[in-house]
Amino acid sequence: MSRSHENRKSLSIDTSRSKESSSSISDERLDDLMKEWSKVKRNISELEDREKSIKALVTDIMKDENVDSLYTDSYNVVRKIQKRSTVSQKDLPEEIWRKYSKTSEFPVFYLKRV
Q: 97 burial class (0-12, 13-18, 19+ CB within 10 angstroms)?
């Protein structure tokens, strides 16, 4: 599908904008948008790795001090154990599954560099 190359503007992502018609964005701008998205996803991944390391360190400190909370002048962190009960579809009779199961529908995006 060919896209119009009118309205070439530098990419400035306005996340407050609700929708942009697919016909009003150039291939170049769309490519820039996906490039920026890919970069943001990498940054998020790196930050999640850093967060995981920090959580592990804080957990070790809590274990060493035998506490479930830590306080500083600026921050506090509290560790709580949460429980969640689940049931597998294969463990239930079909009629019970149909009657009580809840289904959620949501969009999923798969972005990859080509």
A: middle
Average pLDDT (35-57) is 96
CA angle 33, 34, 39 (to 5 degrees): 100
Under DSSP, is residue 36 helix (H, G, I), strand (E, B) or coil? helix
Report the predicted TM-score, pTM, of the whole model to 2 decimal places: 0.62
| pLDDT value of residue 3 | 39
| pLDDT at 74 > cutoff 60 | yes
- Whether the CB-CB separation of 57 and 65 falls below 8 Å is answered with no
Rg (CA), the chain: 23
